[in-house]
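Hey, I was hoping to borrow your eyes for a little while. I've dropped the whole record in just underneath, so have a look:

——
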Amino acid sequence: MALDARSLDVALGELVALDPEEVHDEVTALIGGSALFASRFRECAARALLLPRRRPDRRQALWQQRQRAASLLEVAAGHPEFPIVLEAVREVVQDVYDVPALTALMRRLAGREVRLSFVETPTASPFAQNLMFGYVAQFLYEGDSPLAERRAAALALDPTLLADLLGRSDGTQLRDLLDPQAVADTEAELQHTAVDRRARHAEDLADLLRVLGPLDDAELAARSVPEGDPAAWTAELEGARRIVRVPVGGRDCWAVVEDVARLRDALGVPVPPGIPQAAMVVSTDPLTDLLVRHARTHGPFRAEALAERYGLGRAVVVAALRELVRSGRVGEGALLPTALGGRDTDDGVGPDFCDADVLRRLRRRSLAALRAEVEPVDGDDFARFVLRWQGLEDPGRGVDAVARALEQLTGAVLPASAVESVVLPARVRDYAPGMLDELLATGEFLWVSHGLLAGDDLWVSFHPADQAEATLPLAQEDPDRASGLVRELLTTRGAMRWADLRTAHQGARADDADPVHLSTDTQWTDAVWDLVGQGRATCDTFAPVRARLAGGRTTQKTRPRARRARLSGRPASLQGLSGAAVRRDRPVSTPDVLAGRWSVLPERDDDPTVRAVAAAEVALDRHGVVTRGAVAAEEVAGGFSALYKVLAAAEDAGRVRRGYFVDGLGAAQFATAGAVDLLRGEQPRVQARLLSACDPAVVHGAALPWPETTGGGHRPSRKAGALVALVEGVPAVWWERGGRTALTFTLDPEALAQAAEVAARAVRERRIAGLSVETIDGEAALRTESPLVAALEAAGFGATPKGWRLRA
């Protein structure tokens, strides 16, 4: 399926944005197969006089130099401490690629300190041209690299020496960084000795043998519940010929019949009589299969313990493990913590080995244990973090910034009147309505209604088209006959304009025995908007919503901007009047309310698991730190309990972290690694902002409770039409719809002055129609002694018989 431009950008972003904790290891593991590394190794070997010329007075052909260097590399690749290999790796990692700078960039990208944008240009920039020229020069001979060079691509490197050489070592080893309790708990889970992992019946016991391999009676008893009877279970399974007794490493063990052929070929175990031939499946590499299974079900281990368990020689086991290390499936080094019996690798006993996935899990759990010891941030820092996370600290520009804002707002239910007046302008510096229409017309995003509000306003949300099936709300109401007719026409004939709908309706009436008659503009308007209100239809432009808002009272009234005078016979003296002055009280024509192409929304995916996964991904992208209060405020289907299962599974997979990140919000908090780093860092002071109280960037009233007001009056709420002024990320003033009621959260004159100024700026920029403040903290605005009065007067508000007012 072809990808649109936005989906392609997302896919490219996933390729470019790497995990900062794994960048260095991934680059180091891959450079061995490059022509760049081969050439650097040749230069290092020549400088070390390991490739002397036979005739010093003559030049040597390049192919001969490469051939001799490849032969040396083929031998040296198997020696982890060979200094020339380590020096070549250091040159590539630091001098050519500058991996430390790449790691720092990926960390800033994960923390959203750097924004990732895609720009397509017809030619490469001067900087990119230099990079391309260097790339060609470095990889000129990669296509004809000798076979020996390609065979030597899998390098065995000493991680401790390499860390010292690269300057990444601080005198500690990985075993000093791994939490002993995390290692012990992981070992118990992998070995099924943990209380919740033990076998409860015969089927569990068979699964244990299949997952862990051969086990003796004592090991089976240690992995069974106390009230269980392993002897009876093994007798039952043996009678069914599902398990058999086999000698392994001098011990009498139980094994599933599927393992008999593998044990025979790898260890020389005799085959018990009565095994069906169908179960004797021959493995291509049985010893490697046994070692991989052992590594996958254990924490850090030594080769001696593995050799003793299977009755093999240490040299055989070490050689096989080295191959797994070269392939990246197993890691080695000083891995086992000293508290659990770990010893130095230079004491003659050799390094520890551990499965790569298990080692990553140990790192994540150890890091989580360290994070748990860090003091959580307070609510004010969290509020400032959310503003940074959602891009309000440094708003972007252009259509791409609008697209990014809509991605973060996926599924967030907002008053339509607030979308283009306060929500999007707060995230995009140069926002214009045409930017939103462009994204809707190209099919990258779509909008859906969640119900109608008073004054021709409505609740809306935006959804990326490629995720709409899982993020769109489930339709609750069945359409009536009129709106059902519109839905049927749009379903059978595709997206259509209003005029095409009427034409199609005339044709359908001729063939229908009991036709629905929609003849007037009012009937068509009601039918279409009823279907929209039911969350079943949408339009490829936001113009109908704007026209609807302009035709009545909205929860967030905006002053119409002056329109360009059209060429007409109107006198020149009248052409200077704005469209707002001429048409302010004139009802909007029906074609304006039904402008654009209308279509039915895609079918929803009603699988609760799919919807929960999508909701969890949206919540992580929008909030950075997902808390119970934030999910409850957005009324996610299934509540926080539905997302908790998904987030807990994502934590086990290492995609998110769980911890006590924000003080007072409970222990069930989930966040991405980049969000945690950004949250724990120093939060800069954010400029004063005027936001809709329903905006997800306002965490108060959702994740955090509203601060205490300075006077009387009712409590603030996140209702449609309400505005809140944030100063340094925390609420300073809350305005009810139209500004009639104002509540203050601080008595600081400077903070109140900033709050009044951002409100006045929004009015002057015609983002909101105006504010008429009649009561402040429960008292009449003209009689109160609140310091907000002086702030309003300084911001340009004028006194009226009812209070303080500012109009555009």
Q: What stands out?
A: Confidence is low (pLDDT under 50) at residues 143-154, 559-589. Residues 356-372 form the longest helix (17 residues). The radius of gyration is 34 Å.
